[in-house]
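Re: that backbone. Tokens:
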């Protein structure tokens, strides 16, 4: 399949259009693949799992189906199986951008930020001809986020080198896809978490995070950051509203559970509730 074009097609069509295309041509692997992508884009993860599970079972040799099934599993927090499938996909095609980005997310939430940087950088270095637009933009956002965590946990040299990489790579992602929920979330998180001297700005954080929530109402991580922002403002009602919304969408959300536990491995401004 021409997977790059299919990914970009999925970014442009509605769920209704994707469903109609499958109904019209029920035997089309490409149409079902696009439908699965649209479900992923909308964070309708159970529906995406259903589509990609069937695609993979019927086409186990197809790298795109293997990735889609792995990404759906990742979102269901079945991480070990997802990771094994993603590693298989990358072994088959070392430059397959969707698998590299999905694995970068897994590395990030395992706190292997160096591994996450390496995978995102591989997509970036491959250039726009080797990735669909969304995954290319996500690569810059993921690279920026992982660099930010390295700076957070590193010494003065890391803070100087890794910290400086964050905003400039988020700016590149925004230039590529200014309305991408992932990119808006990355920028909102930067403005929320960065100290004022490094560009932090709570008003901009709120603006970008609200835009991310509007663009993707089922993006659980966004509500966690909005909850943290509400706590800074002393608005306990909004804190609970946003945190409950995040957990309603994804009860096992890493960022939400990290914040509630008070471990704050991924930085939780406002501290433990």
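Recovered sequence:
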């Amino acid at each position: 399949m021409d997977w790059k074009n299919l990914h970009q097609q999925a970014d442009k069509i509605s769920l209704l259009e994707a469903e109609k295309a499958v109904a019209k041509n029920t035997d089309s692997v490409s149409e079902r693949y696009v439908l699965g992508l649209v479900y992923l884009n909308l964070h309708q993860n159970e529906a995406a799992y259903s589509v990609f599970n069937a695609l993979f079972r019927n086409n186990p040799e197809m790298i795109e189906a293997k990735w889609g099934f792995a990404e759906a599993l990742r979102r269901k927090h079945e991480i070990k199986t997802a990771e094994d499938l993603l590693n298989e996909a990358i072994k088959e095609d070392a430059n397959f951008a969707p698998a590299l980005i999905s694995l970068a997310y897994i590395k990030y939430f395992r706190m292997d930020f160096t591994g996450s940087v390496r995978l995102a950088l591989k997509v970036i270095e491959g250039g726009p001809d080797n990735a669909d637009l969304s995954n290319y933009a996500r690569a810059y956002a993921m690279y920026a986020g992982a660099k930010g965590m390295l700076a957070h946990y590193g010494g003065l040299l890391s803070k100087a080198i890794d910290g400086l990489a964050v905003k400039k790579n988020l700016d590149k992602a925004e230039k590529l896809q200014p309305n991408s929920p992932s990119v808006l979330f990355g920028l909102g998180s930067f403005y929320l978490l960065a100290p004022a001297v490094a560009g932090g700005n709570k008003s901009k954080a709120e603006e970008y995070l609200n835009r991310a929530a509007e663009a993707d109402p089922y993006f659980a991580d966004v509500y966690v950051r909005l909850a943290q922002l509400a706590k800074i403002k002393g608005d306990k009602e909004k804190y609970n509203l946003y945190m409950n919304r995040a957990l309603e969408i994804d009860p096992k959300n890493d960022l939400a559970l990290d914040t509630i536990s008070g471990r704050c491995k991924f930085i939780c401004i406002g501290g433990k509730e």
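The radius of gyration is 18 Å. The chain has 15 helices and no strands.
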